[in-house]
Design brief:
The chain is built from eight helices and twelve strands. It is an alpha/beta fold. Strand 4, helix 6 and strand 5 form a beta-alpha-beta unit.
Length: 323
């Protein structure tokens, strides 16, 4: 396929009038946390173990469902069984533990959480079967048809839980394999008008020290496990980093125990997000993130506020649903 300028003249006029459009907001003002998500694109997330990668994407997907009604298919076997994952989603949605005990959600809240999670989340559970990325995305197509429901985002967490699909042309090289498969993921996102989240690990890093505290520094986007092909193929790239307990920041003050530094290492398409590092804090009781602005906790606004509606793309799914 090829195009000339005259083929997209209407789209050019719209771009001229409206500028580059943001994607779906996730509940914070863009000036505070300039990260949005567009369908037809990909987000790669990488960090060291126990850096809050899974909790972060869980928060993002719940917020996308609350604010914009988006639906998700997730594959995250390291998180636990489907039952345990659903319970965690209910916890993060209500802000209270799902399990019975002190401070747990009421029966009414439990019903509300279950209804919400059941409406917006489907979990892929391959049990003992191998699952490739091709099979994963094919399964999402099947889910969409079987449930008569548009699937807006998918999550693979982590990448190394998938079975590899090497071909002879990969020559047994991981970089060639990754380049082909990540290219396929991007093409599939564009073809199906979904947003694909893929979580992976960072490669081995050299430890640094501050006094007696030894720790791993924030990784670079080129330090994704498997090499910098992730950086080359990535659109939106997020790197969460959790400072170790007792470490001092640039102001010679200890980082907070629940502090998360979220680095936007790469942001495409233009206008969707802004590169930079943004600080979030995990409320370990609610399992929800907040920002500290003027010494006040600012949680994601999961309501349909005026600003959030203005950030929502004007998308018509009638042609892509296929039903």
């Amino acid at each position: 396929m090829y195009k000339q300028l005259k083929d997209v003249r209407n789209e050019l006029k719209e771009l001229q009038d409206k500028g580059f459009q943001r994607g779906y907001s996730i509940g914070w003002k863009f000036n505070d946390l300039p990260i949005t998500f567009k369908l037809g694109c990909t987000t790669y997330v990488a960090a060291a173990p126990a850096s809050g990668k899974t909790e972060l994407i869980k928060e993002i997907q719940i917020n996308l469902s609350c604010i914009h009604g988006l639906n998700h298919v997730i594959f995250t076997p390291e998180t636990g069984s489907p039952t345990e994952i659903f319970a965690e989603l209910c916890h993060a949605y209500i802000g209270k533990p799902y399990l019975s005990g002190k401070g747990s959600m009421s029966q009414q809240e439990r019903h509300r959480a279950e209804k919400f999670v059941d409406e917006h989340f489907i979990i892929v559970d391959p049990v003992d079967e191998d699952l490739t990325i091709t099979q994963m995305y094919s399964m999402v197509d099947t889910i969409e048809k079987d449930l008569n429901k548009k699937i807006h985002t998918t999550l693979i967490d982590p990448w190394n839980e998938l079975t590899e699909e090497y071909l002879p042309e990969d020559l047994g090289r991981e970089d060639k394999y990754l380049s082909r498969m990540l290219g396929n993921a991007r093409k599939n996102a564009r073809k199906t008008n979904r947003h694909h989240f893929i979580v992976t690990h960072v490669r081995d890093q050299a430890m640094v020290s501050q006094g007696e505290i030894r720790y791993y520094p924030p990784p670079h986007a080129r330090e994704f496990a498997g090499g910098q092909v992730w950086f080359r193929k990535g659109l939106l790239m997020l790197i969460p980093w959790r400072p170790p307990e007792g470490l001092l920041n640039d102001h010679n003050e200890p980082y907070k125990g629940n502090e998360l530094h979220l680095k936007v290492a790469k942001s495409k398409p233009k206008g969707v997000s802004e590169n930079g590092t943004y600080i979030l804090y995990l409320d370990t009781v609610k399992f929800q993130y907040y920002m500290l602005i003027n010494n006040q906790r600012i949680y994601a606004d999961r309501s349909q506020s005026v600003e959030q509606k203005s950030l929502k793309p004007n998308l018509d799914f009638s042609d892509e649903r296929g039903f």
